[in-house]
Amino acid sequence: MRGDEPPDGQRIAAARVVLPFQAPKQRAPIASPTPRKLKQIEAREAERAISEDWNERSNAVRASIKKGQKT
Length: 71
What we know:
Blueprint: H1 9-18, H2 35-67
C-alpha cells in the first residue's frame, strides 16, 4: 500500500479496503459559540429582558401620572 513492494492485485484490493480506516474521518467544524460566549449572550438577554420590563412599567406609571391616576 505504501509502495515498498511491486503492485499485486490482491495487495491493491486489500489497500482499497483498508485505506478508509487508516486515518479518522474529517468532520465539519461545529460553528457554535464557546461556553464563555454563551454565558455572555445569556447575561445580555437577561439584562435586556429586565430593562424592557422596567421600561414598560415606567411608561405605565408615567401614563397614569399624566392622567392623574394613582398607581
